[in-house]
TrEMBL record:
Domain of life the protein comes from: Bacteria
Domain ABC transporter: 6-233
GO molecular function: ATP binding; ATP hydrolysis activity
Protein name as it appears in the record: ABC transporter ATP-binding protein
Species of provenance: Pyxidicoccus fallax
Keywords: ATP-binding, Nucleotide-binding, Transport
Keyword presence, DNA damage: no
Family: Belongs to the ABC transporter superfamily.
Length: 303
């Protein structure tokens, strides 16, 4: 068994003349929460659909849990998916629908699975509610409950928190953390980059169908390679900071933020301590230190 849940090698998807995904390669290790990031039309949903086996790639190869996802039945019981804008069929009570789906999936105790999944997404009150009477946020959570049933080792969630109120969105994030805690791999797409930064161990950033960057969250946000010191008072002599061991660059951003780059492979806490020590010795007062940059800033810089 590979230690990767998903591998993409040179994957492309064309719809006629439209190239939706262009020669994309990245991998998702098992047991992590992995983000799929990109602006509208970047190719996230198309990539999700190929991972689920709903679409064939036009080129390249894709392995999901060591199998080709389009092989019939290969991912049965091993993959749960929340498609974007999932629509629940009308005319069903929510609990009965989930129970029916659990039965179709061959789960041992379908009603128990349905109840546990609805409970996990905080929606037990909808058990007897007709699907067409659910609010947008409730329908989204019911669709997410479907992806959780049977506790599959891999769960793909396309914009699980879009349109949810902040309290419910926080609850959904907790469900995702709990899945990781139980050893499941979760791939999640969202336009909320603060949410992904908080939630994900690693991510891939797509732009116009191509891979802009992939890596751990710490790599993407440069947490090991740069930091900022917010200055309260005093004069920073940047050439002095730049000459401190393992500092490769130091410059002021505006009047009160010192931006420092660190040599690769050096523990950042050591360099931060040296720089802060030097600043204090020279009478500079500090308000705070932050490592790397926000994911949102990184993405805006890349795209
Ligand atoms: N069935 C299709 N036929 C033609 N073009 C398509 C089809 N599906 C997607 N596309 C195009 O492929 C590109 C990528 O679409 P996709 O839905 O994967 O993007 P996305 O990153 O999920 O966007 P969003 O954030 O808006 O959901 C877009 O330009 C879209 O118009």
């Amino acid at each position: 068994m590979s230690d990767l849940a998903i591998e993409l090698f040179g994957v492309s998807k064309r719809f006629g003349p439209k190239v939706a995904v262009n020669n994309v390669s990245f991998s998702v290790p098992r047991g992590v929460v992995f983000g799929l990031i990109g602006p509208n039309g970047a190719g996230k949903t198309t990539t999700f659909s190929m991972m689920c086996g709903y679409l064939y790639p036009s080129d390249g190869t894709l392995k999901v849990m060591d199998v080709d996802p389009v092989t019939p039945g290969a991912l049965k019981g091993r993959l749960g998916a929340l498609p974007q804008d999932a629509v629940l069929p009308p005319g069903w009570e929510t609990g009965a629908l989930l129970t029916y789906w659990a039965r179709l999936s061959g789960l041992a105790d379908p009603e128990r699975e349905a109840r546990d999944a609805l409970e996990a997404v905080g929606l037990m009150e909808a058990w007897k509610v007709q699907t067409q009477a659910l609010s947008h946020g409730m329908a989204k959570r019911a669709a997410m409950a479907q992806a959780l049933m049977g506790r599959p080792p891999l769960v793909l969630l396309d914009e699980p928190t879009a349109g949810l109120d902040p309290r419910i969105a926080a609850q959904v994030r907790q469900v995702i953390r709990d899945m990781k805690g139980k050893g499941q791999t979760v791939v999640v797409s969202s336009h909320n980059l603060q949410e992904l930064e908080e939630l994900c161990d690693a991510a891939a950033i797509l732009d116009k169908g191509a891979l802009a960057q992939a890596g751990t969250m710490s790599e993407l946000t440069g947490q090991g390679s740069e930091f900022r010191v917010q200055i309260a008072r005093g004069t920073v002599i940047t050439p002095e900071i730049a000459s401190i061991a393992d500092v490769t660059d130091a410059r002021m951003e505006g009047e009160s933020v010192l931006h420092v780059r660190i040599r690769g492979g050096v523990p950042p806490e050591e360099v931060i301590s040296r720089v802060v020590g030097h600043l204090l010795q020279t009478g500079v007062l500090i308000l705070g230190v932050s490592r790397g940059q926000r994911l949102e800033d990184r993405v805006l810089q890349l795209l």
